[in-house]
Amino acid sequence: MDISKKLIPNTFGSVLALTIISFVVIYIWFGCSDFPERDQLKESLTLTATFFSAYATLGAAYIAANLFNDWRAQKKYEIIAQLTLDASLDLIRAKDTFHFYLFQYIYKTDEITYKQVDDVVFHAISKIDLLNQVLERYNMPNITNEVNKLYRESYCKLPRLLQEKKYLMKLSEIELTKYSEKSFDGLKELNEKMLANLKI
Fold first, then answer.
1. In this predicted model, which residue has the larger pLDDT, 106 or 71?
2. For residue 31, what are the CA distances in angstroms to 19, 49, 65, 147?
3. Which residue, 136, 126, 138, is CA-closest to 76?
4. Distances 133 to 79, 80, 118, 141, 178 between C-alpha atoms, Å
5. Tens of pLDDT, residues 149-162
6. Where are the beta strands (DSSP E) in the chain?
7. 3-class DSSP state for residue 67?
8. DSSP symbol at 162
């Protein structure tokens, strides 16, 4: 980050400037007082060194605080990025599982039960809910509306007959394709919203 690159030189410059100003003020102050002239420079330098030590300590604390905040921001981003990636992959897996469930009799693939599909979808939705909670915790735009559109308004509205093997076997490829597309309507919008949170 640009701030981190300039942080140390800027802080060092500020400490140096404050030290020089302190020296000038102290030297003038000693000059205006009844202090012996021969000790004026020595005492000014001694007192300035004390101030420099204090400024350097404050500068170091300031740098440490900023680096800590940078680390926290980076960690927050990593957490959200990982959860987003996991949720996105789980959604794709859920969509694919449902697709293969619908077409298993046409493709003649291994049998997939509706319970297996439901479990995969539930797992994906759980991951998205976790991501949503993290987004809300960090005051970032949540994805509640998109999740509702995908799950409650698309997947949950599918006919219950699709859960029955006999009904599934009667459907044509066109009908199955229609159900497959309808089941995860809103997936694109949800993915876009999730990925939008990763933009810096």
1. 106
2. 18, 18, 38, 74
3. 138
4. 12, 11, 22, 11, 33
5. 888 888 888 888 88
6. none
7. helix
8. G
Structure tokens at 184: 């995860």
Query: Cβ contacts of residue 151 below 8 Å, gap of 6+?
Result: 121, 125
CA distance 78 to 28: 53
Say what the pTM is: 0.65
Neighbours of 117 (CB within 10 A): 21
Spatial CB neighbours of 179, under 8 Å, sequence gap ≥ 6: 102, 158, 162, 171
Match 């900023």 to its residue by tokens. Answer: 66
| Percentage of residues of the chain with pLDDT beyond 70 | 95
What's the burial of 84, exposed, middle or buried (CB within 10 Å: 0-12/13-18/19+)?
Answer: buried
Q: Read off the amino acid at residue 124.
A: A
For the chain, report the end-to-end CA distance as a whole number of angstroms. 11
Residue type, 43: E
Question: Residue 189 contacts by C-beta under 8 Å, 6 or more apart in sequence?
Answer: 146, 149
Structure tokens at 67: 């680096």
